[in-house]
Amino acid sequence: MKKSILILSIFLTSIPTFAQTDQTGTEHGSLMFWNNLSLLCGKSFEGEMVNASEKDQFYGKKLVMHVRTCEDGKITIPFHVGDDHSRTWVLTLEEGNMIKLKHDHRHEDGSEDRITQYGGMSSNTGMAKVQFFPADQETTDLIPYAATNVWWITLDEKSFSYNLRRINNDTAINVKFDLSKEVETPPTPWGW
């Protein structure tokens, strides 16, 4: 009986739980989001387009995210689209409690794409389960039509979603990943 209790205790303490506070005990939404995302480090998950149509660039392709690195203040998440390993979402913790999202695009030889490093900074500390990233000035200078882009990421115990909406436009991308089932880790993304 004691052996069974010990095994159960070890098992329960090995199950990851979503963080409720940051290291100082302050409940900043951005830091809870960051800590919860870090719990997924090293894991890969398959996703699907939400409300996809045949016009969508990802339609009919295998979509896999891999929370590849969780260094101090930086999380990289390659987004694999079929055999295309050119995309990596790069999240950095800025000013202690704000999160910046950048899109790193590479060619197969590892060189940077002409359109890369666009994204934005969270406009506030957000919530533990959602972070919003309006397009920054670098994005506006690089891709003028993307000046009204708003990206957001949702995260809970069951799913991670990556979303894009362009204000005053019907363009929308929504990819939802099932966190309940890990998949095989894809190849190293191009340029990394």
TrEMBL record:
Q: Signal peptide location in the record? A: 1-19
Keyword Signal: yes or no?
A: yes
Please report the organism this UniProt entry assigns to the protein: Belliella kenyensis
The entry's keywords: Signal
Q: Which protein is depicted? A: Secreted protein
